[in-house]
Amino acid sequence: MTTVYLNGRFLAPDQALVPVSDRGFLFGDGVYEVIPVYGARLFRLDEHLARLAQSLAGIRLADPHTPGEWRRILEDLIERNGSGDRSVYLQVTRGPAPKRDHAFPAVVTPTVFASVSPIAPPPADLAERGVAAITREDIRWKYCHIKAITLLGNVLLRQEAVEAGCAEAILVRDGEATEGAASNLFLVRDDVLLTPPKGPFLLPGITRDLILELARDHGIPAREAPVPASWLACAQELWITSSTREILPVTRLDGAPVGTGRPGPVWARMHALFQDFKARQRAAG
Ligand code: PDD
After folding, report:
1. Is the CB of 183 under 6 A from ligand 1?
2. Is the confidence at residue 85, as pLDDT, over 80?
3. CA gap 204, 225 in Å, rounded
4. ∠ Cα 202 94 24 (to 5°)
């Protein structure tokens, strides 16, 4: 039996009810985070909470909790939900309003929700085969750095990928690759690891930052630089990264092989560094 958190209470999921006047329901007016839990430890919690604060500031909604309060709520929630590797989903909306009006209500009572889900293990043949992706035009809005619950663009793009038998849609805006529908993007070109720089057209991924940190610490040449879409097809390696999928090597893009068509050596090295980093976090817990 799982337990969820809603507005100060720990409840069974079917007891956790949000009014239909909630602006999250009516307008997608809210932001969220997805935080992995390895062992009993929230992975990179400070970084996730800093990004949550940025997202809330981006939609002009006051952070309902201090970092210490968030930690206590989320640690309590994971303790109530068994053990093992999981992920925490949390969302904050602008709450219920007396009438449906696009502009903010005079009095805002945010809705705070959090739940815990299992993390699906990576495909067993990942290191052998990698995953397939498609490229699509980035049809989303211009505030992609905000982790908004308004995800219709991402939803439609990911669905196209799934219907094409692919793991992800890699997005292109004005001739440059930005990120995946729910992941960041890396490629290896001229033996250098590249990822598009932060800005309004992509989410500042926590996994992305960790990969850059690991690259720096272990002497893997890496750069943040714009990625022309034409570089995707001729990349030595292509990866997509996120909190729930870690680092997935993309070995087929739009039906054609990427590099050798197999996960590459830079991916294998970074995957090992990432697993090692996780194991150390787990042990420290
Ligand atoms: N999404 N870009 C987008 C558009 C994303 O939705 C995500 C993650 C990322 C990767 O960010 P991070 O490394 O911090 O997980 C990049 C989460 C997992 C989701 O929506 O479920």
Report:
1. yes
2. yes
3. 14
4. 70
Radius of gyration of the chain (CA): 19
Q: Is the CB of residue 207 below 6 angstroms from any atom belonging to ligand 1?
A: yes
N-to-C CA span, the chain: 24
Domains by residue range for the chain, with CATH = 4-118 (3.30.470.10), 126-284 (3.20.10.10)
Tokens for 13? 């999921």
Instruction: Tell me how far apart the alpha carbons of residues 211 and 217 are, in angstroms, rounded to a whole number.
Output: 10
pLDDT tens for 172-193 read: 999 999 999 999 999 999 999 9
Which atom of ligand 1 has the smallest separation from the CA of 184? 16
CB 175 within 8 A of CB 228: yes
246 torsion bin: left (phi>0), alpha (psi -120 to 50), beta (else): left
Query: Which amino acid is residue 241, in one-letter code?
Result: T
